[in-house]
Amino acid sequence: MANPFVFAASPNQSGLVYDMIEVTTIDSTDNEAANNIAIVLYIETGGDVVFLNVDGNERTVTVPDFHTLTCSVKRVKSTGTTATGIHALVVSDMATITHKQGDTLEWVISLTEGGSAVDISDWSIRAQIRQNDTLIATLTTTVTNASGGVFNLTATATSTDSWAAGNHSCDIEFTDNTNDVFSTETFTVTIIEDISHD
Asked: In terms of domains, do 46 and 134 share one?
């Protein structure tokens, strides 16, 4: 089971949700779909929820109806689980992102906390790609929905055409409206050589 928490914005660990999956409880195998780990369980009918976290530790939590349980979850067990209508908000392993030279780069990012959008009005956001601390690129940041926590990080095709092939490091730094600063974990951007070009 891949670990997405290496990329999650600190202290927020729920900014990379890409799908909600209905959970079928099972004791023997991980059930959040291949290479996924849930960061939130949404439970329609309350009761006990028995699950394994990302480290494989078993937890039992009693929750009410229509409850949002925020924790890493790779398996919801059938034995002991009485809650029903369980849905998993999942993320995939984003420790490495691949991009080809000469292609337009556009990442659409949604910042959430506890399953709710973080209002990024009046925030400053920046992201840089570096190789051994040498600056490769500063990505362009465009907030598209401040109250919904949505922003884009982009670079033009002309810009990426000059990026050296290989593995580079990147993170995203946030300065909120109270001047608190926090960053995502460092992740890898692998630049691949462009084959079709002038």
From this structure: no
